[in-house]
Each structure stands twice: as C-alpha cells, then as structure tokens.
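Table S2 (continued). Query chain:
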Amino acid sequence: MKYNQLGRTGLFVSEICLGAMTFGGNAEAGFWTAIGALRQDEVDGIVGRALASGVNFIDTADVYSFGGSETLVGQSLKNLGVARKDVVIATKVFGEMGPGANDRGASRGHIMDSVQGSLERLQTDHIDLYQIHGNDPVTPIEETLRALDDLTRQGLVRYFGVSNWQAWRIAKALGLSEARGYGRFETVQAYYSIAGRDLERELVPMMVEEKVGLMVWSPLAGGLLSGKYGPGADTPQGSRRIAFDFPPVDVERGWACVAEMRKIGDAHGVSVARVALAWLLAKPHVTSVIIGAKTIEQLDDNLAATALTLTPEEVARLDKISELPPEYPGWMIDRQGGARIPKPFAPAKA
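Corresponding output:
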C-alpha cells in the first residue's frame, strides 16, 4: 500500500480508501438498499480486513442510509479497538437529511447542524476531512467557506474538501479562501473511471495547477467495469447496476474498455476490476481511489490492485481505447498552444 499526500496538507492517506456507501441500507433507507445493506458484523469484517491491508482512509457521508453508514463506521472502529490517530475519517454534508426546508444544502446553518450529528454518529471529537457533497446554487460560496473555516478553527474539522463541483467554481473558491484568509478545499471527490474520463478536460488541469488532491468515486463505473457485464459476460441477477443504473456511461466505449481490460487481465491472471483500478492508480493526479465492497472476497480483489503494475505499453493501450473525443476549446488550445511549449530559443540572425 502506498500513501499519498492529501492536497497541500501534511496528512498522508492510503492510495485505496474504503468507501462506506454499502453500509446500512435498511428498509427506511429507500434506494440505498440497492447499493448495500451491510450490518454491523459484516461492516466490522470489511473494515478490519481493509485496515489490516494498510488502508488508513475511510469515506462516508451523512446521507448514506440517512446516518446509518456513519453510525456503523463509528461503532466498527470502536469494536475493533482502532486508535483514533490511526485512521483518517472523511464524511460529507449537503444531502437531504430531514423534511425541513433547511435540512439540506451548503448553508452555514445546515453545515453547523450537520457536523454535530456526524460527530455523534461517528463517535469522535473531530472529522479529518469534511466535504461539501454537492453544488448548492443558492448559498454563496463565501458563506460555505466561512462555515468550514470556523469548524477548523474550533477543532471539529481538520481539513475540508468538495465533491461534484465544476472546475471554475472550485477555482473561485480557492481564490476566495486565499483573499480572505480562510482554509481552502484540499480535495475534490469526483467520478473517474476508464469509461468516464470527463474530468480530465477541466478538473484535472485545475487540480494539478492548484495542488488539490483527487479522491475517485465509482472507479468501476457502478460495477460496469467489474467484469460481470459486457463482452464475454452474462449480467448477474440482482446486481446493483440493474437496480441502480448509475453513473451514466457511454456503453459502447465502456464495452470496448472492458474487452481490452479482459485481455490484459488474462495476461496477468487477474480480474477486469483489478485492471480498471490499477489504471487509475497509475495516474499521477490521483490521490486515493474509493472502493466499496459487499463481501470480503470483493474487497480482497480490489485491494490486490495495488500490487498490479501495468506496463507502459498496457497503459498506452488502455489510454487509447478510452480516450475522450476532441471538444472545444481543448482542440483549439492544443492547436494554438503548441508553439508556446518551452524549447531552446535561437535568436534570429542579423
């Protein structure tokens, strides 16, 4: 297991992060039951195995099973006797947590109310990484940043991040933080997979430039890249992708990726899922890849991706089969900017 610097901070997190979205989907949790409904003993087994494998990073959210996931994570760490300093806990705020008009969003009120609930459910006195889970078109960015900054000054939160925002909006937030002396977004949690590389257009260049860490959610495109679907596979009954067809994927491009990954996986004697994760782990702009598991066997296979090193030729094959189609202004920037790439300068002769 490798450990990467979290954004510009001095905190290091494992390249694999254990996602807790499969924890707790009870009968009252609605569609969360389609994602997972693991109970405490099952959660303890998965958390224990992940920590024993070197994972020190766990990601959840208050909205996952309406608090059930956070409750199970907190109790699991207590059951397993995990020292608080030995685990980095990330959670999120934004989603609807009640019937009231203010039980959602990124307002100061909802953030301040929600952090207390998350701390209680997680049975901890601080959250290592507190993330805004979505884009709030109503609340001013300054209000959100001020609330998060206050939480860090109070010691309730150590770092904060954002998820599912546009690149321009994150860049604006970073500028506001610098101008006003607030803490800043240190991470972006975003969808990224070999079948969904859209964030490479705007988000990745911004994050590299600003030294913001990237946490990847749904690295297997909601199971589409697990190897259970597509060319050479029969879709299993009761699978998550049938019940919850998300995230959206260009299926034809996805199947082409699966077919190529299957060839590479066969050459290494590993699963398609492991190849998909290894491709992400090879990207220098990726800080940590979030994996969710319903079984120990699934967890072990995903964790084993850290031991799979793809050759440069294999990475190139996968990059080629999954490359994004040209899109403006990218194709014009490439056309016009080539002459400005640094090279030895030779002054004109007199």
